[in-house]
Specification:
TIM Barrel; eight-stranded parallel β-sheet; binds flavin mononucleotide; alpha/beta; four-stranded antiparallel β-sheet; globular
């Protein structure tokens, strides 16, 4: 299955791009509306993109009243990304979303580097959400956590149904003219090509300790990138930053992935998932 990475596509303004995906994931919605961080919020680097959007979103009440009915009308398979600043906040949003049959699953954004407030542990948040909804819960983990496999095990024990790997990692760009940080908040989340080896490592390490399905993401630009995430242990792949430069990426990557699967003797993504864990051939 090919999805978009949360925050990298607005299905309402680009419904044809969303239609090329197997499933659409919303931008993270928080309990209260957030205007996000002041500009400049985006910086390009030679190896990817820095963003400090700051989880700008209309808040869960407005989202349920306006955005969700509009998204549901598009007829897409739909996951909603949920954020917050305490386990109770996450759980309250999950309880509200539980009433919507159009929402297939919830992705818990347990990792946003631009949000200053301390979050409770990933497992505590998952446990609270598990008690609030019967919908599948995907725990989205941060690569900043050095023991990401430990987190994977903990969220699985707390009731997660899947892992989304990975979110951005903190970075900084300095303006060549002013010698000051480009972004208003100085640091931001790095996404794009630089993230791919980090995503591969996270997927590989989590697959070693967990059999949960994994959405792999981070710097996917080609079918080969998607194939490598599958090989490391992902069962699905999401496309993020690439969509800004190439809105046609989902269809192209799907076709390239099929060629790559066949070149390697597979017919389905499921057959290729985890093959990098096999012992090396003599
Ligand atoms: C502009 C922008 C906004 C993002 N917003 C969110 C968000 O709201 N929630 C979330 O979980 N991840 C968010 N992300 C992270 C992506 O979903 C993804 O994890 C990350 O960008 C790595 O994938 P990529 O290299 O393909 O972009 C955002 C990324 C970008 C570039």
């Amino acid at each position: 299955m090919i999805l978009n990475a949360s925050g990298c596509l607005d299905a309402l303004t680009a419904p044809n791009v969303a239609a090329a995906l197997d499933c659409f994931v919303t931008k993270t919605v928080t309990p209260l509306p957030r205007g996000g961080n002041p500009p400049t919020r985006i910086a390009e680097t030679p190896v990817g993109m820095l963003n400090s959007i700051g989880l700008a979103n209309p808040g869960i009440d407005e989202f349920l009243r306006v955005n969700l009915p509009e998204l549901a009308a598009l007829g897409l398979r739909l996951w909603v990304s949920v954020g917050g600043f305490s386990a109770e906040e996450y759980a309250a949003s999950c309880a509200l979303l539980d009433a919507w049959p159009e929402v297939e699953a919830l992705e818990l954004n347990l990792s946003c580097p631009n949000v200053e407030e301390a979050a409770e542990s990933a497992a505590a948040i998952v446990a609270a959400c598990r008690a609030a909804t019967t919908k599948p819960l995907w725990a989205k983990l941060s690569p900043a956590n050095w023991d990401i496999a430990g987190s994977a095990r903990a969220v699985e024990a707390a009731g997660a149904d899947g892992l989304s790997l990975i979110n951005t990692i903190r970075g900084l760009a300095i303006d060549a003219r002013t010698n000051r940080p480009v972004l208003s908040l100085a640091t931001g989340g790095l996404s794009g090509p630089a993230l791919k080896p980090i995503a591969l490592a996270a997927v590989f390490q989590c697959r070693r300790v967990s059999q949960l399905p994994i959405v792999g993401m981070g710097g996917v630009r080609t079918g080969r990138d998607a194939f490598e995430l599958l090989a490391a242990g992902a069962t699905h792949v999401a496309v993020g930053t690439t969509l800004f430069a190439d809105p046609g990426a989902p269809g192209r990557i799907r076709a390239e992935l099929q060629v790559e699967l066949e070149r390697n003797g597979f017919t389905t993504s499921a057959e290729a998932s985890g093959i990098a864990h096999a012992p090396a051939r003599a």
